Amino acid sequence: MNTVAHPHARPDLTRPGTGRVLVSTWRVGTPERQRAAVEAIRTAWESRPWPDPRLLSYSVHTGTDGDTLLHHSQWTDEQAYHDFVRTHRDGRNAEIDAAVPGIERVVLHHYAPPYRSVPLDPASAGAVPGVLVAVEAEFAGADAARQRAWVDAVCAALADDAGKRPAHGGIGAHFHLSADGTRVLNLAEWASGRAHEDWLSGEGPLGEAWTAVHRHPGLTGSRVRRYAPALSLSPGA
User: Fold this and answer.
1) How many of the other CB atoms lie within 10 Å of CB of 87?
2) pLDDT tens-digit profile of 4-17?
3) pTM of structure
């Protein structure tokens, strides 16, 4: 199979057949190096056959901070990723590093497919996302039940918001539970960064539903980052 590149595209976050989702962050330093790294990734992958049919997609997003890249890949299972690391990853990374020296590979987390996916604004259903908002929550110790309970609390708060602070331009939120039981990643698709900023700026004093989210037992921290779709790779014929 050959490799097909889709510039400025994004993955289907609810793709059927996905058994494991890997999300990693690179730091590259500047917007110019972000663009150069994305092009180096495209070149390294397009010049080689698709490595494994169990890899369903690989996508890269550029951080609006002008520094980071968010990598998102969908696999049929965990073993598929480990086989890729053993046989295919080093050659691609070496070529990318030669083109853009000094990349810092910060962190890699393993997630299950979305535990829940919820719409944010019915009027935006089917819209093309212009920005991906990554919301990461960390917990003290592994607890799968706590992960699910926190996601359920966020979904309840979003539903409570519907009549008070409509998420105009919000397309959908997709909640992933980490395989180690200690994290939740919400990948939220928005029409634009401004739409997300407007929604955040409309937040008043915390109501009961959002208080339950922010003061959830075992929650130790969270952060929010915005990314623009840069490249999505998939197997061809």
Assistant:
1) 11
2) 999 999 999 999 99
3) 0.95
